[in-house]
Design goal:
alpha/beta, 8 strands, about 15% strand
């Protein structure tokens, strides 16, 4: 598909990528009443799903997937959930393994390529909840995950009708390198602190799998992926994990209408994270690259964010075609 021309124009003060990113993550407030459901996964671990509903019964649902160290209560999850509820669509905000406030059971947890969990979620939505139209709104890590899911599966259930992927690190190695640069040191250190603290809890549960000394050796996010993410999920090391789980290599296989929105001033993304060639050669893949927006910071004052409104517009457009 041709590259989509973006119409996003933020308020002046939010043209700065750092400001829009921090404001969206720390200051924005959205309130949604949730009903929690716990589902059992194929390996007998669990996921917690936080539901909100349209005012009338519907067979349409949007699945919200969060980013690194996020959860279902983040504003970037609640915003689109509330918007879609108001427009007749149920919403389920997924808490990845270990992200709902309670440690998951297995030594493994979640990662950028854990598409087996998406398979279980989609199966649950179809077979138990009886939805006939399923849409995805993925953010950052969750966006990479759903793009990989679309491109690696030989058969995607016909009920999956569309996907929007926001601030996607399509090339995990490139994005990791960006996070290790000085401009992103505050983000890097914050992510690492949260991940290491969570890993200490995991170590107490599974002391035979990981030592305290190994945790102490973690100085960077790449170290974390070397020590834990890769080993816990069947990869050789961090490089192998990045190589196998980057969604970039799967984009040419996508057959479901998909919109990627990656801001050009997103400091988390490397040049490889803007899949221009892939979008031009796949009729199902739309790429929008706003000048502004930072990382998940497509701010519109007095209302919903630009990416949230674009998701609703994009999915409604696919319905009419």
């Amino acid at each position: 598909m041709p590259i989509v021309t973006s119409t996003y124009k933020p308020p002046f003060f939010f043209r700065n990528g750092f400001v829009s990113t921090v404001y969206s993550g720390l200051i924005r407030r959205i309130k949604v009443e949730h009903k929690r459901e716990r589902i059992t996964l194929s390996d007998n671990d669990f996921l917690d799903l936080d539901w909100s509903f349209a005012t009338k019964k519907t067979d349409r649902v949007i699945v919200m997937l969060h980013g690194l160290e996020g959860n279902a209560q983040r504003p970037y999850m609640l915003g689109p959930a509330k918007l879609f509820n108001e427009n007749g669509v149920d919403a389920v905000c997924v808490n990845f393994r270990g992200c709902s406030g309670e440690p998951n059971l297995e030594y493994r947890s979640y990662h950028s390529g854990a598409t087996e969990d998406l398979v279980d979620i989609v199966k649950h939505l179809i077979e138990v909840k009886n939805y006939s139209e399923i849409y995805f709104h993925g953010i950052s890590l969750g966006a990479n995950m759903v793009l990989k899911y679309l491109g690696e599966q030989n058969t995607i259930p016909s009920q999956v009708k569309g996907v929007i992927a926001v601030s996607v690190p399509c090339d995990l190695n490139g994005s990791c390198k960006e996070l290790h640069t000085f401009k992103n040191i505050l983000y890097h250190n914050n992510f690492k602190r949260h991940l290491v603290n969570r890993l200490k809890i995991k170590q107490a549960q599974h002391s035979d799998m990981l030592s305290i000394d190994k945790i102490k050796s973690i100085k960077t996010l790449r170290d974390f992926d070397d020590v834990y993410t890769s080993k816990a999920h069947g990869f050789k090391d961090a490089d192998d994990y990045y190589k196998q789980c980057s969604s970039l290599q799967f984009l040419s296989n996508i057959k479901v209408p998909t919109l990627i929105i990656n801001a050009l001033n997103d400091s988390f993304l490397s040049p490889e994270c803007y899949p221009i060639k892939e979008a031009k050669h796949n009729k199902n893949l739309f790429l929008e690259m706003p000048i502004y927006g930072g990382h998940v910071g497509f701010i519109k004052l007095r209302g919903y964010y630009y990416n949230e409104k674009r998701a609703l517009e994009f999915f409604n457009t696919q319905q009419t075609e």
